[in-house]
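lol ok so funny story. i was supposed to be doing the assay writeup but got distracted and ended up predicting the structure for this chain instead. priorities right. anyway since i did it might as well share w the group, maybe its usefull for someone
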Amino acid sequence: MIPSTRFRFYGEGIPGVNLADLKGKLIVLEGPDASGRSTQIALLTDWLERRGHAVEHVGLKRSTLVSGELAAAKEGNVLSPRTLSLFYATDFADQLENRILPALRAGFIVLADRYIYTLMARDIVRGADLAWLQSVYSIALVPDLVMYLRVTPQKLLERYIYRGRELDYWESGMDIGYNRSWYDSFIRYQTELHRSFMRLQALYGFVPVSGMRTPRAVTRELQTRIEAVIGPSL
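and the output, tada:
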């Protein structure tokens, strides 16, 4: 693996972390539910491991500290936007300290199934102040590569229906009160979420990738962009 350029935090970061010790790569795949993210994460993991890279996975609600409590709290559909935001921020901080940083020190490729950008985009839609969010996530490492799978809200809804999946209360924005219809609320929420992502893209410079194509075509583009970061296979 090509030696990593020196990592940096978005803000002051975590005290006591020697960024020069981080030998791995941090690669992020963003995108809404039903955008094909999980499929691509699995395909990319297999592809990277076959090339000799050790891979560590992180994502939302995977912290051993609060993931169980967060999942239970969301089932009640009564969390306030600020409480929900801080729950996810705690989940992220725990994974950063106990999974992401150790894996990077060991030279792993950390493959993140969403990162702080999804959390910020969701919170912006729910009225959070961007400056406050940037302060909350000032501890985050700047990734080597961030890719955002773009899929229209209408296509996302089609995929939900085709796969027989029920719409999620939170991913439909039902807590915001757009519409009593889950379907109409889903379209409105996903549209607003995409606008938030575009706002964040202008600030953070992540790469938009069309998720409207076949999984194979999407995988090829993701692989090409990752190779430009990690270099040739071992």
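The domain at 19-230 is CATH 3.40.50.300 (Rossmann fold). Helices lie at 37-50, 67-75, 81-105, 116-125, 130-136, 153-162, 182-204, 215-230.
back to the writeup now i swear
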